[in-house]
Design a protein that fits this description.
Blueprint (H helix, E strand, L loop, with lengths): L1 H9 L6 H8 L3 H13 L3 E3 L15 E3 L5 E7 L4 E6 L5 E7 L7 H18 L4 E8 L24 H11 L12 E5 H12 L7 E7 L4 E7 L2 E2 L30 H4 L2 H8 L9 H10 L5 H25 L3 E6 H8 L1 H11 L10 E3 L5 H16 L3 H4 L3
Parallel strand pairs: 3-6, 6-7, 8-11, 11-12
Antiparallel strand pairs: 1-2, 3-4, 4-5, 8-9, 9-10
Helix pairs in contact: 2-3, 4-5, 6-13, 8-9, 8-10, 9-11, 10-11, 10-12
Length: about 400
């Protein structure tokens, strides 16, 4: 009962004790006892001034505790690292972007992430309960090995979960951190989808498909009835390697014309006949290029080209998965904004159900969604068992 109640408050679906009572289908007394225990754990607050304005007896307001514990969220990008602290409620605090270390082998990369997270944990007065890491490559379940780590040429099968846990144990997260400090790793697109489902554009969707393009490549994820669909070994929904143009650009996987190579930031620059500035993040530059399509004919032509390829990929996924909502993030969010009707038309024309079965395609709403999803990953044990917070008290 505590876990479902905490998740309802965490995701904003139970802003009052009355809403929590209805969502859990319990008595008022039971809801009061549950919220009292979560408040005693330091995870939520119960406003003693009831919320009024409606019929019947006013209900107490519920919120996550702004002074409660935090987790460290981290993400490895193709060209940088990012870290942040995150309390309950899906809010990131103090997001920092850092350059990649000079050596990008797994141990040194993961050590840099752990040390950056430890810096944040030592600087806060709040207890740190765990660390979640989003990776730009497939991660197997349950063993946590990285497969096809194409951005950094890591050996396939690198035991990334074990290596990261070791680096987290070695780093100094300060006297307020749980010891030993739990850590977990997962694919960044999967985690972004989880964040969007809980806190953003994917709320209330039963079958949510997320497709995103970050600094390099394309990722995808599927959430079914609130749970990530990761397949038999955590490797499902590698949508970036769906072929959309057999004669297209070469992909890092060895094939040609993958969604990965046809709709990422580099593909947009190639289509526009331009070269990104090597001194800045390519994703930011590509997003600006897409936004300039209204006034720049070359940018408009490039957007149309990439949108057509993206539409082909989305149509194929719709035919297979039958989602009730598609969320686009990263560069794809800006492509949607630049050519919404064109993208919808391509998907409808190529979809088995055509325009009569059009699936809503909506922009992502969660900022730093991969990081936000890494926070969800770190919070998950406590959402399942809030009393585990007791074990975290040092």
């Amino acid at each position: 009962m505590l876990g479902p109640a905490l998740e309802l408050v965490h995701t904003g679906r139970a802003p009052t004790r009355s809403a929590l009572t209805g969502a859990l289908d319990v008595t008022r007394a039971t809801a009061g006892a549950v919220t009292g225990e979560l408040e005693a754990l330091g995870l939520i607050t119960v406003d003693s001034r009831p919320a009024g304005g409606g019929r019947g007896r006013p209900s107490h307001r519920l919120a996550v505790n702004p002074a409660g514990p935090v987790v460290v969220a981290a993400q490895i990008h193709a060209d940088s690292l990012s870290v942040a602290l995150a309390g309950l409620g899906g809010r990131l605090e103090g997001v920092r972007y850092l350059p990649l270390p000079a050596a990008t082998d797994p141990v040194r990369m993961l050590r840099a992430v752990a040390e950056a997270g430890a810096d944040l944990a030592r600087a806060t007065t709040r207890r740190c309960l765990g660390v979640g890491l989003a990776l730009p490559n497939p991660v197997t379940e349950p063993d946590g090995t990285a497969l096809a780590a194409l951005h950094f040429a890591w050996p396939s099968g690198t035991p990334v979960a074990d290596l990261f846990a070791q680096e987290v144990r070695s780093a100094d997260f300060g006297p307020r951190a749980r010891s030993p400090l739990p850590s977990a790793v997962a694919n960044d697109a999967n985690l972004a989808a989880l964040a969007e489902h809980r806190h953003g554009a994917g709320r209330d969707a039963r079958h949510l498909l997320l497709v995103t393009s970050g600094h390099r490549g394309v990722g995808g994820a599927l959430v079914i009835d609130g749970r990530l669909h990761t397949g038999s070994a955590g490797l499902a929904l590698e949508v970036g390697h769906l072929t959309v143009d057999p004669q297209g650009r070469p992909c890092v996987c060895g094939n040609r014309g993958c969604l990965n190579a046809e709709t990422d930031p580099e593909a947009l620059f190639v289509a526009a006949g331009r070269t990104p500035d090597p001194g800045g993040p390519i994703l930011d530059q590509a997003r600006r290029l897409a936004r300039s399509a209204a006034d720049d004919p070359a940018a408009a032509e490039a957007v149309a080209h990439v949108v057509d390829r993206l539409g082909l990929g989305l149509a194929g996924l719709v035919n297979i998965l039958n989602p009730d909502r598609i969320v686009l993030s990263g560069l794809h969010l800006d492509l949607l904004a630049a050519a919404p009707e064109r993208l919808a038309a391509v998907v409808a024309d190529r979809c088995l159900w055509g325009r009569s079965g059009r699936v809503p395609i909506v922009p992502a709403e969660v900022d730093h969604a991969g990081l936000a999803g890494a926070a969800e990953l770190a919070w998950q044990p406590y959402l399942q068992d809030p009393q585990a917070v007791y074990a975290a008290r040092g």
